[in-house]
Amino acid sequence: MVELADRLSEAAWKIRNLEDYDRRLERAAQRFDEISRERLEPALMVYETALKKSERSEDEIRGMVREFRETFEDEEDPLTIPRASAIMSVEGDGWFFGDENLRVLTGRLLGQFQHRVAQYNYVDEREVARRWADGYDTRLFVRRRIHETEPVVGVVGGLDLTLFQYLRVAAGGNTLVPTENVFRVLRVLGYEGDAYEALAHAEGLALHLELPAPIVGEMLEDLGRDGFDDFPEPPCETAEPEEGVPSEGGAAAEEKPSPAD
Length: 261
Description:
Blueprint: H1 2-16, H2 21-38, H3 42-52, H4 58-72, H5 81-90, H6 100-118, H7 125-134, H8 136-143, H9 161-170, H10 180-188, H11 195-209, H12 213-226, H13 251-254
Helix pairs in contact: 1-11, 2-12, 3-4, 3-6, 3-9, 5-6, 10-12, 11-12
């Protein structure tokens, strides 16, 4: 455990001492802020996550979500989870790139969150989603590598760890998505392992950097996309004593008086 903490501390030092660290941090924060502003309704967070399973481009998916909002947005009747679920149950597969399986998956996910919201009295949908994303139980299921049995989203099936984490981040969770670019940077920093280990290392790195995990995730994604591997090396903590200079326990120890003296 101590060795892991030391490695995380060293990795945090390498990132913090990048020449363009401030610029990368600012860019990551802006990127995350832009994405977060588009995720207003929990129903659309679920919808967007389900659409990502199609493996379409990010622009296509966000464009579809944006079109859905503009089509059904109503100031007097907001796009709550029940309303979005009702709309999707009668609309065709066109809102899901023609894939019926995506429509079924979205409906099941919305149903799970609708049930979750009903368990809380007078709590906003967004707050319910955030509590799920950051809740102890959710983190425990991920830490134990059994996210597919998590009782809210996991039991629906169809979401691998990457999509599961994508939804947690979208819902406001202090975590990140273990993408291939994140993997790439962690390997350069000396970490190996599967997606669960990569997630644990990256979250630990965020703690050492004293930054929100989603922003660290955006920084790692940015570094990985650039193929960056030239991290600075921390200075050596120990140095050889100079010639003629007594080391600790040397001459000073010899001059120490004996008990008899």
